[in-house]
Amino acid sequence: AAIEACYALRRDGVRLPGQAMMAGLQKAEVPVCFDVVTVRPGVVVSAATTGEDVRAMFAALHQKANSFGGKIVLCVSQAPDKLLSAFDKEFGAEEGYAVQEVIFVGQNAPQPEGVALTACTTPKRAAKSILSLTDPNMTTLVVGDAKFAYAIKEAVTDALIGLS
């Protein structure tokens, strides 16, 4: 849709150099965008960064809750407090949906209250932790900026290819 919008502008006489179009598309972020990497156990990757995007993402996931297991593992590169709060607002009253663990990627892992923490220094190590979760009712939700989300998705995909 974004590419077509650029071409529509060009057809209307707006001058957009090809390089500028590509640079703009690479920087563009689409809210409520998430990729399903695996289904059972589930690995969902999202580039939601604002509070509004996170709430919208959880609402979208809530609509598809029957497709995923309710034992949630959050994989993040920043303090998970806001994510945990947003998750509780969306899923809190539903039985069977709860955050079990936080996988933190980076240095100085913050200890979330009431949730187990696994600290990893690299996306590759986080991918190993994610893929070690074999419970079919487990869903790992990776949330962070586009660079972090892409790095984890690539690490999980590479690890899956290495397993086959």
Residue runs with pLDDT of under 50 for 5 or more positions: none
| Total strand segments | 6
Can you write the helix and strand succession as a string? Answer: HHEEHEHEEHEH
Spatial order of strands in the largest sheet: 1-2-6-3-4-5
Distance between the termini: 35 Å
For the biggest sheet, the summary is: 6 strands, mixed
Envelope shape: globular
Average of the residue pLDDT scores: 84
Rg result? 18 Å
Strand content: 15-25%
- Which secondary-structure class do the elements indicate? alpha/beta
**Tally of helical segments:** 6
Lay out the secondary structure.
Blueprint: H1 2-11, H2 18-27, E1 34-38, E2 42-46, H3 51-63, E3 71-76, H4 81-91, E4 98-105, E5 116-120, H5 123-131, E6 138-143, H6 146-163
Parallel strand pairs: 2-6, 3-4, 3-6, 4-5
Antiparallel strand pairs: 1-2
Structure description:
With 164 residues, the chain is of the alpha/beta class. Helix content is 43%, strand content 21%. The chain contains six helices and six strands. It has helices at residues 2-11, 18-27, 51-63, 81-91, 123-131, 146-163; strands spanning 34-38, 42-46, 71-76, 98-105, 116-120, 138-143. Helix 3 packs parallel to helix 4 (81-91) and helix 5 (123-131) crosses helix 6 (146-163). The longest helix has 18 residues, at 146-163.
Would you kindly provide a brief summary of this structure?
The protein contains 6 helices and 6 strands.
